[in-house]
Amino acid sequence: MKTLAKQLLEIGAVSLSPNEPYTWASGLRSPIYCDNRLTLSYPEVRGMIADRLAERIRLLEADIVAGTATAGIPHAAFVAERLGLPMVYVRGSAKKHGKGNQIEGRIKPGDKVVVIEDLLSTGNSALDAVSALRGAGAVVVSIEAIFSYGMTRLFENLKEAEVGANALLTFDELIAEALAEGDLTDEQHHSLAEWADDPAAWSERFLTKK
Length: 210
Known about the structure:
Blueprint: H1 2-11, E1 14-16, E2 22-23, E3 29-30, E4 32-34, H2 43-60, E5 64-68, H3 72-83, E6 87-90, E7 103-104, E8 112-120, H4 124-135, E9 139-148, H5 152-161, E10 165-170, H6 171-180, H7 186-197, H8 199-209
Parallel strand pairs: 5-6, 5-8, 8-9, 9-10
Antiparallel strand pairs: 1-4, 2-3, 6-7
Helix pairs in contact: 1-6, 2-3, 6-7, 7-8
């Protein structure tokens, strides 16, 4: 995964800033920010991502590829095209007009579905999609993502939902590559590792220092 880590860092899809952390919507401070939407502007990068996701999904013998709205939708489309499979996408909630669909596309009871997500933190958005698909009678065989922070909360949520998840690139792999490329000092690497162990505590310590 060195190539993917290097490319995401080079195009700015992943930004590391241990000294001036980003603020997430939750208010949590984070020394890393991931925006895989940027990969859409780089054909070589998005093509590599689609190829590798397709390789994984081909082994799962899925009937349908499902993208999460909105960031997972284009990647699901690229993968479905490569595999010659039907595709659907899952909204965060049902529409409040028309047919009130949450799932756009055709799903039949018993269909084996793989969910594609661009990013996994706690996994809540992907698991909302899993819940909607199961509600339609589908069998969700896996969640496949581009990047995962590897948070403890993610693994707890996946276990509770009884579904597996994989990512092409993990947080640990990414920061190891950044350190090898000289993008991080040892001190910054240590700080990032501390954040991964307990993001809430790291955020609180940062705010206390300020």
